[in-house]
Amino acid sequence: MVDFKQPLPVIKRRNSNSKNSDPEIFREDNKLLKLDENIDEHSQEFSSTILKRLLLSLQKKININQELRIKYPEQPEKFMESEIELYEEIQNFSVLATAPDLLPEFIESKVFTLTIQLLAHENADISSAVVQLFFELTDDEVLTDFPDEANTLIEALVKDNFILLLYQNIIRMDEKNADDSTCVHSTLGILENFTSLEPKLCETIVDSSEFLPWLLGRIRVKQFDQNKLYASEILSILLHHGEIISRKLGEMGGIDSLLRSLAHYRNKDPKDSEEIELLNNLFDSLCSCLLVKENKKHFLQEEGIELLIIMLKEKKMASVGAVKVLNYCFTGGNEFEACKKFVDQFGLKSLFPKFMKPPKKFIKGLEVNDFEESVVCIIYDMLRAFSENSAYKTRVLGKFIESDMIKIERLVELHEKYFEQIQKCRKAIEAEKMELQLEGKKLTEYDTARFEMKEYDAGLNTLRLVDYLLCYLCASEVPEFQVRIYKLFDQKQKRITEFLATLEDNIKDLENASTEDTDKAARDVKAMKELLLKIKR
After folding, report:
1. DSSP code per residue over 251-277
2. What is the distance between the terminal CA atoms of the chain, rounded to a whole angstrom?
3. What is the pTM of this model?
4. In the predicted model, is pLDDT for residue 11 greater than 70?
């Protein structure tokens, strides 16, 4: 039997006098034979007339190839020439990407479905050409200005099972072959285009194919390359667009795949910026998964906490991502078991050095302010997770007693840093509000939301968390905490009354803030009020 998956020979234009040509099938109109001559490569306009000619020509090439394959199934030399022509014709058709307004005409033709079906063609070079064609046709940068055409194209592709055929094609690719590797990259590009044009397609991609397990398998490959990076990016995008996909990933053992992929960087740094991006995508994917409560159980069972502690110890770039993942793991429900396991595995010893001094190396999208917020939030969540007389809470509080309570000094430093940043931010906001009034403009809801976002960017949430910790320490059963905190504020020429006033402002902000988790906000407000009253006594 002939292996039809072998790559085509070097593409050359068919010689009309070829001995292998079948005269009955290759007899075409002179107009179609001169089609390329009628299309000026440098013409400024790709017209409907030219499209119709291309459609007719492509349909004939498809039919010719099918007939020859049926007629000479054991004689590839009889149909090879027709496949070369079909390959060329598909490539020529990419000119349609320059005229998105003509896409509906292509979709309404029979050729549209025939072209999609070529993804299942026995010759992988033909299916690869189709992948490249649709990669160009779905280019989100081009289709952004043609929303109606984009929607029509996506709906038609989904209807014709394009995503399933795309998956069935990618699994037969051998990435050791350069052409097949390019096809895989273009396939991932199509998925990215889909999710950019219509985010709801993320669930369709997962439901109508096995792309999700394929992506998990692809990121497990040890050797780094562009397709591994791209696969990690697509996985991150899919998981970012809904809990349904994250839950499905957890059910198929995907948490283990993510942890194994991350374990590669537990004791070494990425080699370059692209590998850093891969690491960032893997951490983002894991964070998205941990938004689902069921996945936290999988995470604990697969020893995710242990891996993060190792990363914190090693002090490599992955330690930054480990802090980010811990922050997600300790919030959103079921945090007690995660916090308990973290303390049991001596994670506090690795975490607090990060609290005292942020690392110098940061992964993309995470800066020192974000890192400090994550670390403070982790400590805050542990204190909230453990009951008042719990041995675990005592162990957390014990870290603030060590080394002459130097960690309390760090808390006061953080309070001072973020308090000043917020004050500076609010002065700028007031100036902007004044400018709007002078221009006779009213403050809109958009303006209010924008100003709130500026405060958060300046570190408002971090300030609240730091002040909560200071408040908790002051009201704890360790009287030395309050003495030290008061003394530190005096040394910095800041009255403790100002600190308490800031706490009251934080409480008011929390009461007035709009949040999805109203129960959590109410608990936080109640806890802060009780602590504040305890301090004032």
Report:
1. HTTHHHHHHHHHHTTSSS--SSHHHHH
2. 91
3. 0.85
4. no
